[in-house]
Structures are given as C-alpha cells and as structure tokens.
Specification:
globular, 104 residues, Alpha-Beta Plaits, alpha+beta, 3 helices
Length: 104
C-alpha cells in the first residue's frame, strides 16, 4: 500500500537560508530513491519561515528504505537545531477514492 506523508516545520528567522539549502539537498537525494514517487517542498506564502513537505512512497518497504538512508539522518540531526519545533510535525494521509492529481 502506498505511504503518504505530510511534514511541516518552522525555521528560526536566523536559520531560514540554511533550512532552505538543506531541504533542497534532501529533496534531490530522496527523489533518486527507487520507491519515492513524490517529494514536493513548499514554503508558506504568508510566512516563508514555514516549510511543508508532501511525500509519497510506493509501499512500506520503500518508506523504510527512505527513513534508514544515511543522508536522512544527517538532515534530521541538523534540522532539529534550526527549527522552532522539537522535530518536524508529521501527518499520515490515506487516499480517498482516486486521489491521484489530475493531469489536465
């Protein structure tokens, strides 16, 4: 079954450029994972310190491969020192009907 995850966190004002750099690098790595289907990063328009990540993995094994990747541990270890929260807030999502994005 597909694993869908939404993560969010808030950079401290003095660290936002570093957070942006880190998440861009992570996105490049994750998108190369064979089981990753989507890794989209956004910043809130009204509050650019807030980051949002939408992630889709082919199945549980693909997600397990993702969370055990060495570069993810390095990213998370540094990120926790740069954000307002103790860690990223994670929300697991379940598709409703045909949840695929339209191509039109």
């Amino acid at each position: 079954m597909t694993k869908v995850l939404y993560a969010e966190f808030t950079a401290r004002p003095d660290t936002v450029d570093r957070v942006d750099e880190l998440i861009r690098g992570l996105a490049e790595d994750v998108r190369r994972e064979p089981g990753n289907e989507v890794f989209s990063v956004y910043r809130e328009e009204a509050d650019p310190l807030r980051f949002f990540v939408f992630e889709v993995y082919r199945d549980e094994q693909a997600f397990q491969d993702h969370i055990t990747a060495a570069y993810g541990a390095v990213f998370n270890a540094e990120l926790v020192t740069l954000i307002e929260e103790d860690a990223s807030r994670l929300t697991w999502l379940t598709p409703v009907g045909d949840a695929r994005l339209s191509q039109g």
